[in-house]
Amino acid sequence: MIAAIVIDIEGTTSPTGSVREGLYGYTRQHLGQWLADNVGGPADSVMDQTRDLSAQPDAGPAEVAEILCDWLDSDIKAAPLKAAQGLVCAAGFRSGALHGEFFDDVAPALAAWRDAGLELHIYSSGSVRNQQDWFAYARGGDLASLISGWFDLANAGAKRESFSYETIARTVGLAPDQILFLSDHPDELDAAVAAGWSVLGVERPGEPNTARPPHRWVTSFDEVDPSAR
């Protein structure tokens, strides 16, 4: 019996364009200044990790910003990029420049699943900080209060690796077959199945990822019935 639902963000709860144009655009615009302003503080860890991964040990804030923006443009899900993005965008959410954008069916479904006694967790390549802000500052009102846990590359691992899903199951204290995973990405569904989870693909109209066997797919959270799995 399903006791928890773990949910992807980009392409699943939210339009891909809203993430890439909103968060990515804001990050590109403000990253360089944030790095320069926070040397000796939170920027140091980001710069050290970026230097190590890029094999450019002498890169300064401007060079690090260029490396991170190149990774952003190439959709490279590197840990220092995600950490920097979370910190940079935090100010944008709090100023009202950024809002979490969600498909219309998401908020009612999340509330209904919580009312039914299910735990809800988010698993995204975006940092936990970004995830929490995305839900807390949702355009239609706070959704973060509905979420029991948050998982990213740092505390769970890569989304296409089965061990990441094993880590999440241990963390939430549930057997794999008690967890349902919702994602638009077939490779992520494959990895979750390999860890023993139930999965359901979400194929949103106009989104880049498309349905692929052997998984079952829906086009809306309205079609998700956790009790039927």
How would you summarize this macromolecular structure in one to three sentences?
The protein has 229 residues and is α/β, with parallel strands linked by helices. Helix content is 45%, strand content 10%.
Give a verbal description of the structure:
With 229 residues, this protein is α/β, with parallel strands linked by helices. It has helices spanning 16-37, 43-54, 61-73, 79-95, 106-115, 128-136, 162-172, 186-194, and strands at residues 4-7, 119-123, 149-151, 179-183, 198-202, 217-218. The chain has a six-stranded parallel beta sheet, sandwiched between helices. Strand 2 (119-123), helix 6 and strand 3 form a beta-alpha-beta unit.
Number of strands: 6
- Number of separate helices: 8
Strand order across the largest sheet = 3-2-1-4-5-6
Q: Percent of residues in beta strands?
A: 5-15%
Largest sheet: 6 strands, parallel
Outline: globular
Task: Indicate the radius of gyration in whole angstroms.
Answer: 18 Å
SSE arrangement, N to C: EHHHHHEHEHEHEE
Output mean pLDDT. Answer: 95
Low-confidence stretches: none
Helix content: 40-55%
Structural category is alpha/beta
The end-to-end distance, rounded to whole angstroms, is: 7 Å
